[in-house]
Amino acid sequence: MIHVIAIITAKPGLRAQVLEAFQANVPAVLAEEGCIAYEATIDAAGLPPSRGSVGDDTFVVIERWASVAALQAHAAAPHMAAYGAKVKDWTASRTIHVLEAV
Q1: What are phi and psi of 59, to 5 degrees?
Q2: Residue 94 to residue 7: CA distance in whole angstroms
Q3: Out of 32, 58, 64, 72, which could bridge 9 as a Cys pair, Cβ 3.0 to 4.6 Å?
């Protein structure tokens, strides 16, 4: 199984727009062969900011894929290209960690 942690930082004040586009794309991603989990997360409410907080402009996508091949197909999917084009001007940075269990 492949785990992906994607850290997406929107340009200031645009996280809600990026998240709206992300959520609109979720059904297509979940329908992909080999997709086990795909969800956006933000800092938990009710806790004070800490060194590990992502902040108001960032969200973290937690993904699980059945295989590297499934992840590669996901990256090449037309709906992902459309999503990327839509949020390109709203996004400040994106860091993707691809991991596997030991």
Answers
A1: -140, 160
A2: 6
A3: 58
* Verdict on whether the full-model pTM lies above 0.85: yes
CB-CB neighbours of 87 under 10 Å: 20
Identity of residue 92: A
Contacts of 40 (CB under 8 A, 6+ apart): 19, 22, 23, 59, 60, 61
More confident residue, 12 or 47: 12
Give the residue extent of every domain in the chain.
15-44+53-100
Res 28 pLDDT > 90: yes
Classified by CATH at the fold level, domain 15-44+53-100 comes out as Alpha-Beta Plaits (3.30.70)
Task: Answer yes or no: is pLDDT of 49 > 90.
Answer: no
What is the rounded CA–CA span in Å between residue 19 and residue 10? 9
Confidence of residue 11 (pLDDT cuts 50, 70, 90): very high
